[in-house]
Design goal:
Helices cover about 20% and strands about 20% of the residues.
Length: about 70
């Protein structure tokens, strides 16, 4: 199986995760460390057009472990 990446935190894995959602022809996955609400929010934020007030986060910063 190919490596898949979590839409919420970017974690990668070669095993299947339970959280998956398809929007149009694109399928998104989230690792088991996130609630379905977090997953839906991440997908909604990814698929909406960008605009004023959006923040750009440095992808090198790993926030998956919390504060």
């Amino acid at each position: 199986m190919a490596v898949q990446f979590c839409i919420v935190c970017g974690r990668g894995s070669d095993r299947s995760w339970n959280n998956s959602l398809t929007v149009g022809v694109t399928s998104y996955v989230a690792c088991d460390f996130h609630s379905f609400a977090e997953f839906q929010t991440a997908v909604a934020n990814l698929t909406k057009p960008s605009g004023p007030g959006d923040l750009n986060q440095d992808p090198a910063v790993d926030e998956s472990q919390g504060a």
